[in-house]
UniProtKB/TrEMBL annotation:
Domain NADPH-dependent FMN reductase-like: 1-144
UniProt keyword annotations, A-Z: Flavoprotein, FMN, Oxidoreductase
Organism in which the protein naturally occurs: Actinomadura soli
GO MF annotation terms: oxidoreductase activity
This protein's name: FMN reductase
Amino acid sequence: MRVVVVNGSPSRPSKTMGLVDVVLDTLKGMLPIETSRIDVYRLGAGFTGAIERDDVPPDVESALRLAEDAGLLIAAAPVFRGSYPGMFKHFFDLVDQYALAGKPVLLAATGGGDHHALVLEHAMRPLFGFFQALTVPVAIFASAGDFDGTVLLNPRVYGRVQTGLTDVADLLRARATRAAGAHPPHSNN
């Protein structure tokens, strides 16, 4: 299964990607996955200056198609002033309106304190609702106090990751099996 992370953090390294690394490590223990990462803050001037999809250069078009073609999309962002960063939103402003319909999307966010966790339900979930994406029921949040630098330490957050992924592992397995079966090998019979 192709898992694509859209990273909305301008920092490198970041707590947001520290959280995503835990998600990916946990998921690798459940399913065979291939991962790709799109760092929206590293897409350059051709991305930031684009007003419409037709304006993007080939490398940005490739990043958009990678996200649109994911088997599982992980949308991860830090909280800035009560919401996700503008570059994160700008990326999804350029995604085709119907490309994410029915696609599993896992929401992950980091913030300064637990009160920032509301971004998952009040900003990120509605964004993917617009796309008619299948957002995973358990969204994952970690606050600054859950980390030592960019290393996640809080066992409660690890438990939430495990719960969230266990809840959808069967769905992801079924989708991966169905996708593999969509192109059966050619038979000579």
